[in-house]
Design goal:
Elements (H helix, E strand, L loop, with lengths): L2 H11 L3 H14 L3 H16 L3 H13 L7 H13 L3 H11 L12 H6 L3 H5 L5 E4 L4 E4 L5 H11 L4 E2 L19 E4 L7 H14 L10 E5 L5 E4 L8 H10 L2 E8 L5 E2 L2 E3 L4 E3 L6 E5 L13 E3 L2 E3 L2 E9 L6
This protein binds 2-oxoglutaric acid and fe (ii) ion (FE2).
2-oxoglutaric acid binds next to strand 7, strand 12 and strand 14.
Length: 328
C-alpha cells in the first residue's frame, strides 16, 4: 500500500467523510474480494450519511449500473438528488439534465426533491425506432438516439481528457500509436463513470438486447481535419492466440454503436469500403452494426473506417458490445 493510501485509510478510520468517500471508491474499484467491496460500500454509506456528495453520487452510480446487485434507477436518482442537495456540482448538473433533457439550462427548480420527481426515467430509457441501412452485414441507424444536451455533456467530459488514440492487439496493454489511427480518444474507468454515461450504456444495451455488463469501456473519439481511423475490424480475430484468450474471458465483440455527438463538420463519415457505402448521422443519431454474421462468425464485410473531416471537428461516442459479461 502506498503512503498516500495509508494516510487515506487512517483518515477514513477516524470518520473523516471525504476520506471515507475516497477510500470507499478506491476499495470498490480495486476490490479483488467481496469483503473489500462490501467494506467500500459501507464507507460510502457512512460518508453519504455524514453529508458527502461525492459518496452519494457514487452510490447512485453503483445502483444505476447494477455493479452492486440489481440495477435500480429509482433508488439511484434518489441518491443523486441527495448528492445535489449537498451541493455536489456533478450531481446538480446531471439531475438538471435528467429532469429537463431538452433545456437543462432553463430549468430553475431549486428544490432537489422536486427536480428529482420531474425525471421520467422510463422515457429516458426508451429508444427510438431503428432504420435498416443494410441487411448483410446488419447496419442500423437510430435518429435522435440521444438528446443534444447529453451529447454536449459527453463532449465536455471528454474534451480535457482526449489524447492520441492507440491501437491494441491484446498482447500489448499500452497499445501503439500508428498511422492507422491519427485521431484522439479517451475512455472512462469505473471511478470516472457518471449517470449520463450509464444511461447511454443502458440504452445501447437495450438496442442490442444484451445486459449492461456486455458494454466495454465507453470511448469518445475526436477527429480534427485530416485525422482518421483507417479501415479496420472491430471483431476479435479467433486465429490470434491473444485474442482467443480475450474472447474466452469476455466474449466476442458482437456489435459496435457509434453515436454522433455533433454534426457541424464536413466529411468524416463512417465508411464501409467493401460495401462501397458511407454513413453519418445528425447530432444525437446512432449508427449500429453487427461485427459478426448470422452464424456468429466474424464478418469480413464489416471492414470500416472513420474518414477524416474536411472541415470542423468530429466528436463520436463509440461503444463496443460484447457477448459475455464485461467488468465496467
Ligand atoms: O469514426 C468512425 O466513424 C469510426 C469509429 C470506429 O470505427 C470505432 O470506434 O470502432
Ligand atoms: Fe471500428
Amino acid at each position: 500500500m502506498t503512503s498516500d493510501l495509508k494516510a487515506l485509510q487512517s483518515a477514513a478510520d477516524t470518520g473523516d467523510a471525504n476520506a471515507m468517500a475516497k477510500y470507499g471508491k478506491h476499495l470498490i474499484s480495486e476490490s479483488k474480494t467481496a469483503e473489500s467491496g462490501q467494506k467500500g460500500q459501507l464507507l460510502l454509506q457512512k460518508a453519504a450519511q455524514a453529508g458527502n456528495g461525492e459518496a452519494a453520487e457514487f452510490i447512485a452510480i453503483m445502483l444505476a449500473s447494477g455493479m452492486a446487485g440489481q440495477q435500480d434507477w429509482n433508488m439511484a436518482l434518489d441518491y443523486l438528488a441527495h448528492a445535489a442537495s449537498m451541493n455536489w456540482a456533478p450531481a446538480v448538473g446531471q439531475l438538471k439534465l435528467f429532469a429537463s433533457p431538452e433545456n437543462p439550462q432553463a430549468f430553475d427548480k431549486s428544490d432537489w426533491r422536486e427536480v428529482r420527481d420531474a425525471i421520467d426515467i422510463e422515457k429516458l430509457l426508451n429508444i427510438p425506432e431503428r432504420r435498416s441501412l443494410c441487411e448483410s452485414p446488419r447496419i442500423r441507424q437510430f435518429d435522435e438516439f440521444l438528446p443534444h444536451s447529453f451529447c454536449d455533456w459527453m463532449i465536455e467530459r471528454a474534451r480535457p481528457r482526449v489524447s492520441r488514440a492507440r491501437i491494441y492487439d491484446s498482447t500489448d496493454v499500452r497499445g501503439k500509436e500508428t498511422q492507422d489511427r491519427t485521431n484522439s480518444s479517451t475512455n472512462f474507468s469505473l471511478m470516472e463513470l457518471d449517470l449520463v454515461l450509464i444511461l447511454i450504456q443502458s440504452r445501447v444495451a437495450k438496442l442490442a438486447s444484451v445486459p449492461i455488463f456486455a458494454m466495454e469501456k465507453s470511448m469518445v473519439l475526436h477527429y480534427e481535419p485530416g485525422q482518421e481511423f483507417k479501415p479496420h475490424y472491430d471483431y476479435l480475430d479467433p486465429t490470434k492466440p491473444a485474442q482467443i484468450a480475450d474472447m474466452r474471458q469476455f466474449g466476442q465483440r458482437l456489435a459496435t454503436c457509434l453515436i454522433y455527438l455533433n454534426d457541424d463538420f464536413d466529411g468524416a463519415e463512417t465508411e464501409f469500403p467493401k460495401l462501397g457505402q458511407k454513413f453519418r448521422c445528425e447530432k444525437g443519431g446512432a449508427l449500429v452494426f453487427a461485427n459478426i454474421d448470422e452464424q456468429g462468425q466474424p464478418d469480413p464485410q464489416t471492414l470500416h473506417a472513420g474518414l477524416p473531416p474536411t472541415r470542423g471537428e468530429k466528436w463520436l461516442f463509440s461503444q463496443w458490445i460484447r457477448s459475455g459479461p464485461m467488468p465496467i
